[in-house]
C-alpha cells in the first residue's frame, strides 16, 4: 500500500499519471481544470473524491478572507494506493502522517483510512473559524443595543463581514455532507467486514459537518436579527433627531413671530418722518416704547409657555 501526494501537477504529469494508473479521462479533466464542485464519483477500479479546504489568513482580521482562500483537494482511492492532488501547499498531508505515527500501533493504514483522515483534517480546520464566528455573532448581538452612537461607526461593517464569512462557510460545508455520504455508500457496497470501521469514522465526520452547518445557520439567524435591530435602532435615532430639530425650528418660529410686532414698532419710530414724541426734549417716549416692547415680549413668551407652544 502506498500514498502519492502531487503538488501542482502539470498537464503532462496528469497525462502520464492517467496512463500509469488507468485513471478515467473525466477524472483527469476534473483535476486538470481545478474543478471546484465537491463530489464523490465511483469508477471501475477506484473512487474519486473532490473536497474543498482553505488556507487561513491568520494575519487578517476579516473573517471572510478565510473562505475566500478556498482550494480543492482531489483524492483517487484505489485498492492498494491513494493519489492526492492539490495546486497550493497545504498542511493536511503532514497532519495525517503525524496522526498515523501516533496511532500506528492500533490501526492498519489503508487507502480508505488515508482518505478519511484527509477529510477529517479538512473538516477540523473549519472548527476554529466557526468558533470565532460564534464569538463575533454573540458579541454583535449584545453590543448592537448598548453601543454609544460614536462607537457604532464600524458595527455595520462587522455585521457585513461576519455574514459574508458565514455565507461562505455554509457554501463550503454543505456539499461536504453529500461527499461523505457518497464515500459511505461506496464503502457499504464493499464487504462490510473489510470496511466497517472506516464507515463508522466517516459517519462521525458527517455528524460533525451537519452540526457545524446547523450552528452556522443559527449564527446567521443571530446576525440577521442583529442587523435588523441595528437598522431599526438607527432609524429610531434618526427619527428622534428629526423630531428634536422640528421642535427647535417650531420654537424659533414662535419667537420670531413674537419679535415681528416689535420690528414694526421700531420700524415706525425709525422712519425719516415726524413721529409722536419727536419734539419732546425728554426721553419719556423712548423709555416708554422700550418698556412697552419688553412687556409685550414677556407677556407673549409667558403665554406661549403656558400654552405649551414653546
From TrEMBL:
It is found in: Membrane. One of its GO terms (biological process) is intracellular magnesium ion homeostasis. GO terms for molecular function: magnesium ion transmembrane transporter activity. One of its GO terms (cellular component) is membrane. It is a multi-pass membrane protein. Keywords: Membrane, Transmembrane, Transmembrane helix. CDD domains: Alr1p-like. The chain crosses the membrane at residues 248-271, 283-305. It comes from the Eukaryota. The keyword Membrane applies. Belongs to the CorA metal ion transporter (MIT) (TC 1.A.35) family. This is Mg2+ transporter protein.
